[in-house]
Structure formats: structure tokens, C-alpha cells
Amino acid sequence: MSFVTKDMYFIIAIFPHEKCEICGDLHSPVLKESVQFHDLTELVLIMDKIMQDFNIPKYDKKNRSFVSDYKSINIPLEYQDLNSGNFERYLDKSLKFPMESQNIFTVKVMYRQHCTWQGQIVWIGQDKVRFFRSDLELIALIYSTYNEDYQ
Predict the structure, then answer these.
(1) Which in 52, 83, 97, 127 has the greatest CB count within 10 A?
(2) Are 103 and 22 in contact, with CB atoms under 8 Å apart?
(3) 85 by DSSP, 3-state: which?
């Protein structure tokens, strides 16, 4: 897997659930198929595993390091055979990925430093763009739109 990109891209579709839990599908240009998640913690763990597997964005662990054990993720992740020639094509295709949900987000993780992520989230249906400074803030942004849309 030799391709050049400094940011990792994800598409998240949140589906309504009768128990008011947040669940949905995660897609990325690096994945062959979408992956289902059943809560926001699982979503973050899957996203983190994908970024660790590709080391994108490059992880800055000079100040702190937290070693994650991904044994709790029992979801098979199958990756595309990516190179510098086809990454842009997969990215374009991924951003147009059809998902049957009103709550669709694109997430661009630009940095992984200080044991967390920094990047941008776009709520597609509402044309809202926000920047986040941590994965916890990303979860809060997703959760706040869920509350706004379903309450």
C-alpha cells in the first residue's frame, strides 16, 4: 500500500434506532466495503484502527504514547489495493458513496497528535462545517446533531 496522502477521510451515516442508540455505517476510500458500527465508541475504535494500519495521518507520539489493543474490534476490515495512481479515484468514489440516511458526515482527520485527532467534519444534509480538536469533540459534534435531528 504505497500511496501519498496526509489526511484520512471517512464517511459516516447515522441511522435512527428504536432504542435511541447511535449506529450506522462507516466508509473510507481505503475500505473495500462499508463497516457497521453500533455506538460511537466502536466508531472511534474502528477509525483509529484504520489510521493506525495506514499511519495516516502520521502519528506524532513524541510527547505521549497510548498503545491500543484492537482485540475488542471483531469487525473484519478489508482494504483496497491503493497506490498513488488510484487513491484520488477511490476518494472521489467514496465521497459519493450512497448511504440511505439523513445524517451523513464527511470527516477529514488532518493530524493525530497529543494522543488524539484534529480535523474537520461536514454535516452533508445541513451544509454545516466544524473543526474538531479531539476525537472526544468529534463524538460530541456527531451526538449534538443526532439530538438536534431526532428530538
Answers:
(1) 97
(2) no
(3) coil
Could you give the CA distance from residue 112 to residue 44 in angstroms, rounded to a whole number? 13
pTM of the model: 0.83
Q: Which amino acid is at 90?
A: Y
Plot region of 39 (φ>0 → left; ψ -120 to 50 → alpha; else → beta): beta
CA triple 14-56-30, angle to 5 deg: 55
**Angle of CA points 66, 68, 72, to nearest 5°:** 155
Q: Which residues lie below 8 Å from residue 19, measured CB to CB, with a gap of 6+?
A: none
Burial (0-12, 13-18, 19+ Cβ within 10 Å), 73? middle
pLDDT tens figures, 15-66: 876 665 788 999 999 999 899 998 888 999 999 999 998 889 988 766 554 5
Q: Which neighbouring-strand residues pair with 131? A: 120
CB-based contact 96:80 (threshold 8 Å): no
Cα–Cα distance, 84 to 142 (Å, whole number): 31
